Amino acid sequence: MEDVVMSLLCLYGIDIGIHTERFCETSRFVLDLAKVKVPPNRPIVGDKLYEVESGIIAGWIRLARKEHPLEFVPFSADLVGQKPVSIVLGKNSGPPSIEEWCEKLGVTATEEEKMAMLKQVKAKSFEKKDLLTTEEFKEIVERVLQKASV
Known about the structure:
The protein has six helices and two strands, in the order ααβαβααα.
C-alpha cells in the first residue's frame, strides 16, 4: 500500500490523506504483531533503504547532500518516517566512506592512514560478513593511528 500512496503523492501530486510520515512506525507495529520480518531492502519501509555502503555513492552523497538532498533518493526520509541517509562501513566502502566516519568521530588522519583504515574495514567486513559497528571502526582507527605514531 505504501508504494501506491508514495507514487501517487510524489509522481502525480495526489495526496489521499494518509499520514506518510508514520509508514515505518506503522509497518513495524503491524509486522511485529504478525511476527513477520520485513526485508531490509523493502521499498519505503525497509531498515536498510537509506544506508549507503558503496564508496562511489558515498562520495556522491557527501558532495550533494547539502544542496541537492533529493538527488540520490526519491523522497526525503522523514516523509515516510525513515532515518536520514547514512553512510555505513562494509566490504564495498571506499575512501569517501572513511572520510565521512573520520569526520563523524573527529579523527584527523593522513590519506595513507585512511587507506590503511579502509583496508582493515574491508577485511573485517569480509570476516564477519556484515557491516561494521562504530566500536569496530574506532578499534581500527586506534590500531592504524598507533602504528603511524610508532
